[in-house]
């Protein structure tokens, strides 16, 4: 890598070789194009998948903190053969 000095920057910028960025970007474009074609071909199924995903996100965002408050301070223990008794305590932030 060779440093390039720009007049408006204090630190030199480095040229890097093209890594896997273009490959990953191309793969993402292909996957999104196929997903769009499937969604156009099967609109009811696509709507069901998107609705289920949205419902899962809402459930996790609302139920996660409530579950954390409910389990705050709870302790459980279990025996691991060869190790002994393991205790786990859940605490909130």
Automatic annotation (TrEMBL):
Keyword Transmembrane recorded: yes
Transmembrane segments: 21-40, 46-64
Keyword Membrane among UniProt keywords: yes
Alphabetical keyword list: Membrane, Transmembrane, Transmembrane helix
Protein name: DUF58 domain-containing protein
Source organism (scientific name): Halosolutus amylolyticus
């Amino acid at each position: 890598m060779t440093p390039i000095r720009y007049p408006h920057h204090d630190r030199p910028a480095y040229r890097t070789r093209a890594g896997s960025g273009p490959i990953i970007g191309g793969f993402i474009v292909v996957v999104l194009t196929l997903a769009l074609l499937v969604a156009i071909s099967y609109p009811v199924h696509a709507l069901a998948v998107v609705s289920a995903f949205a419902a899962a996100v809402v459930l996790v965002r609302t139920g996660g903190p409530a579950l954390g408050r409910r389990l705050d301070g709870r302790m459980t223990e279990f025996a691991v053969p060869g190790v002994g008794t393991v205790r786990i305590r859940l605490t909130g932030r």
